[in-house]
Design a protein that fits this description.
By secondary structure, the chain is α+β, with helices and mostly antiparallel strands. It is 43% helix and 21% strand. The chain is elongated and about 65 Å long.
């Protein structure tokens, strides 16, 4: 009996392994040289098609494992992180691969926010690759009451700190759907505590639904994960699926 012929196209796992192997080959080949290399040198030496190589090089540069100067590539500062102790990793470093995986699982924009006073800031964000997508700004302070991550963090505050929030924060409107009533916001926070996730429906940006979950490390809230989905793609079961993925991802950060 003749064995069936398999190929990378017919075997996605084989294709992924090949891509991973090529990525490691590129890193090892560049690090082994004491001078920067151009892409054509790498392609010729490793037998990688230029089209595939360009994507892999761009990814490695984006992650900091290679450094690009003009047309030449050399070892990047990200390689040092691979030998660093856990203590030297920031919260953003630990959250980044999990946020990236969350985005890949849903193909929707995923982010990790931290609280700064009575505002939140995205320290990691990965945008959906779909044409209709929402981009979360980084390095910008945003209102807690209008975003899913903000509501998730508010729901996790101790009672006395939450009262301070309501006494000090401004609950301004950003869209006609923004909840600005303290009573209504309190009801949303009660629901978030009961379900484990906070939800916003066009409260900060029109046409966008947000789903967020607080992340606790050793029992202390350190931030919140969220997913932003265009309302046009909201379908039956999506809330439950996102909530489940957020719970799993938050658990990985706690044990990471």
């Amino acid at each position: 009996m003749t064995a069936p012929i398999t190929s990378a196209a017919a075997n996605p796992m084989a294709s992924q392994v090949k891509s991973a192997t090529r990525t490691l080959d590129i890193i090892e080949y560049v690090v082994a040289h004491d001078r920067p290399l151009v892409a054509q040198e790498i392609a010729t030496a490793l037998g990688i098609p230029v089209s595939s190589l360009s994507y892999l090089l761009a990814t490695l540069v984006d992650r900091g494992y290679l450094l690009r100067e003009g047309r030449r590539y050399s070892a990047g500062p990200g390689l040092a992180r691979l030998q660093a102790s856990r203590a030297s990793y920031s919260l953003a470093d630990r959250a980044a691969p999990l946020v990236r995986t969350l985005r890949m699982q849903l193909n929707e924009t995923a982010s990790f926010f931290v609280r700064v006073g009575w505002q939140i800031e995205a320290i990691v964000t990965e945008s959906s690759e779909q044409a209709l997508r929402y981009a979360v700004p980084t390095g910008q302070r945003l209102p807690m009451h209008a975003l899913a991550s903000g509501k998730a963090l508010l729901a996790a505050l101790p009672a006395d700190e939450l009262e301070r929030y309501f006494a000090e924060a401004e609950l301004g409107p950003f869209t006609p759907s923004t909840v600005t009533s303290p009573a209504m916001l309190r009801a949303q926070l009660d629901e978030a505590r009961a379900t484990g996730v906070a939800i916003t429906d066009e409260e900060f940006s029109r046409g966008i639904v947000g789903i967020g979950r607080v992340v606790a490390v050793s029992g202390e809230s350190v931030g919140a994960l969220s997913v932003a989905i265009p309302k046009a793609r909201i379908e039956e079961g999506i809330h439950a699926r996102v909530a489940d993925l957020l719970e799993r991802t938050a658990g990985l950060l706690d044990t990471g």
